[in-house]
Amino acid sequence: MDYDAMAMDGEDVGPRVTIREADAIRVDFTLQNVDLAFANSLRRTILAEVPTLAIDLVEVETNTSVLADEFIAHRLGLIPISSKNVNDVLYTRDCENCDQYCSECSVSLTLHARCTGDEIMKVYARDLVVEEPRPNEWVGNPVITDAEGQGPVILKLRKGQEVRMRCVAKKGIAKEHSKWAPTSAVGFEYDPHNKLRHLDYWYEEDAAKEWPKGKNADWEDPPQEGEPFDYDAVPTRFYFDVETVGGLEPDAIVQEGIKVMQQKLAAVIQDLTGDEDTGVNGVGDEDMGYGGPRSPGANGIRDYDVDGGYTTPYGNGAGGGASTWGGGGGATPYGATPYGQNGWA
Q: Is residue 320 within 8 Å of residue 312, measured between CB atoms?
């Protein structure tokens, strides 16, 4: 992939990205010609709204180990699995072929291990077997990066103990649960010399010695002695360091984060313009992914959210907000409140 930044007539046009380091695990790059709000939005989107695949449902057939079913299910959910071309997988809420899961909206894996020897047996991620069919040939494979090719340890068994489970991996985002997080960490920094004074360093004797500069400081000029403070200055260069958990390549995570931001902004523009039939640039809701990615539950939360999740015993009202006095715009026995339809007289 060509990472050279584009320029026209010797001037920067639009956002400018400079790749400093890149490998299969992490990508280190700088982002210029954008404001702080945009850069931070990209960081938050990468952390919480890039869709991935993770084990969400575990059907336990046999478990005679010392660990509880819920404990093992939690460990299985945190095992990284491949999310390459995860857009081929439907969200459970969007699947019309099933009520809970099927081969269109999930990937099934089986785990069966039994200890027959006297030594303690370790069960690894490599022991997860992917079932067919699945949306594509990549999704669902356990991510194994160690030299031994074993992956993370799931549990340990003594002689005679056995586990037999069926795991169902679904598509989701980290905003719902951290098991869907595509990254282990996202480093983010700007103004490494603190010229803007957004930070107030606490120090005992010498701030320069007690707060050493990082490698990003080499990319910017240090402040000059006696240089006047610029109250109109804003950050112009942002330093990102994205490290993947293995389900997606780091550059794919960044690209998907930008795509999600585009979808969310397009949804805002569509609401403001009032055009319900067509999205931005002629792209409809289904193609645009209206509202960005969400978790497997309905509307990104859970199925119980249909009634607002807070219906009272005294009536539903609008979204379950009615009180014993009724749901008519905040009316009380003493008349309408300031939040009612008519207000106080």
A: yes
Which has the closest alpha carbon to 136: 91, 176, 190, 85? 85
For residue 30, give the amino acid letter.
Answer: T
Structure tokens at 333: 């026995």
Q: Give the three-class secondary structure for 288.
A: helix
Quickly tell me which residue has 């050493």 as its tokens: 212
Look at residue 254 and tell me whether its pLDDT is greater than 50: yes
pLDDT per residue as tens digits for the range 100-144: 899 999 999 999 999 999 999 999 999 999 999 999 999 999 999
Strand positions, DSSP E, the chain: 16-22, 26-32, 52-63, 106-114, 121-124, 129-130, 153-157, 162-172, 183-190, 237-244, 331-332, 335-336
CA angle centred on 208, ends 203 and 211, rounded to 5°: 65
254 burial (CB, 10 Å; 0-12 / 13-18 / 19+) is buried
Instruction: Look up residue 230 and give its DSSP letter.
Output: -
Q: What is the pLDDT of residues 144-188, one digit of tens each?
A: 999 999 999 999 999 999 999 999 999 999 999 999 999 999 999
Residue 46 near residue 253, CB atoms below 8 Å = yes
CA distance 21 to 7: 21
Tokens 């701030």 locate to: 207
Q: What is the pLDDT of residue 277?
A: 57
Q: Structure tokens of 80?
A: 């990284």
DSSP 232-286: T----EEEEEEEE-SSS-HHHHHHHHHHHHHHHHHHHHHHHHT-SS--GGG--HH
Share above pLDDT 90 across residues of the chain, in percent, rounded to a whole number? 63
Backbone torsions φ then ψ of 126, nearest 5 degrees: -65, -20
Peptide bond into 133 cis (omega under 30): yes
Whole-angstrom distance, CA of residue 287 vs CA of residue 266: 12
- Determine the Cα–Cα distance for residues 216 and 45; give it in Å rounded to an integer: 23
pTM of the model: 0.73
- pLDDT of 224-244, one tens digit each? 888 888 899 999 999 999 999
